[in-house]
Prior knowledge:
By secondary structure, this protein is an alpha+beta fold. It is 25% helix and 41% strand. The radius of gyration is 15 Å and the shape is globular.
Amino acid sequence: MGQNGKATTEKTTFGRTTSVSTNIKADPAIVWKLLTSASDYTRWNSTVVSIAGEIIAGGSIKLVSKLAPKRTFSLKVKEFVPEKMLVWGDMQGARIYEINRVGDGTVSFSMKEKIGGIMFPFYAKYIPSFDQSFEQFAADLKKEAEAIQNIKK
């Protein structure tokens, strides 16, 4: 798992997993609200072009990322555990967000994306690296959550 905001990627023949984690000095509720408010994503998240739909249990979203601005990803919310875990994905993969209290008003945030399948070797070369985008996502989330936390003090 990439730590302190630095992403890591592990590759296998049939898949790839990219992950990043960082500590955020904010309440889990603040981080959760940012992760689940689709209409607010483009304000704080510089890695997303657009996102539509509802990030709720069983919800569906349509996401356009800066990594693939000509493609709209249709994603289903697969797991939704308030202030702890959010998972969305499609047939090719899943993105997992986790929030864990570490004490002293700090949470550990991690994001992991697993992509792959039997056909992965045929299209893997067309998928760009997620490392820089993951690092930027984590930095954007940390900056916004901590700014909100400081306003609430």
